[in-house]
């Protein structure tokens, strides 16, 4: 994806458009989306996505901007911040002790319980392809008592 400005982004129509009806809908900013969620009582799962080549300074900047927007909209209780990137979640947790955090895993690594405990996670999200009864029992047992969420996005209608 090419870099585009906020002004350019606001001109993109993601609404229905045909010869009978014209309905312009712009892509909302995170601030607009959080304000909408707060006013409507909706909860929002925000996944922070990073790639291996991303520098620590970028992670910190993104986490700072995310927290600034959440604070500005007073939507701490409306969000769950999730990521596969433990480093980004650690940065977030150091800056905010009250925002709910979820760790995304394809499969539970050996050190998952320590990471979950250290980060004080609300939820652990697993890919259903790697789900076992042992994983469910471990995640949902004390001392964590975490909420388990399954990634079922790859399931097809067969």
Give helix % range: 25-40%
What is the tally of beta strands?
5
Query: What is the number of helices?
Result: 6
Count of domain modules: 1
CATH class equals Alpha Beta
Give the percentage of residues in beta strands.
Answer: 15-25%
Strand order of the largest sheet: 1-2-3-4-5
Q: What name does the CATH topology carry?
A: TIM Barrel
Provide an overview of this structure.
The relative contact order is 0.10. By secondary structure, the protein is an alpha/beta fold. The chain starts with 5 loop residues before the first helix and ends in a 7-residue tail after the last strand. It has a five-stranded parallel β-sheet with strand order 1-2-3-4-5, with helices on one face. The chain has six helices and five strands; from the N terminus they run H-H-E-H-E-H-E-H-E-H-E. Helix content is 36%, strand content 15%. The model has no long low-confidence stretch (mean pLDDT 84). The chain has helices spanning 6-9, 30-40, 56-72, 86-95, 112-119, 133-139, and strands at residues 44-47, 79-83, 101-105, 123-127, 147-151.
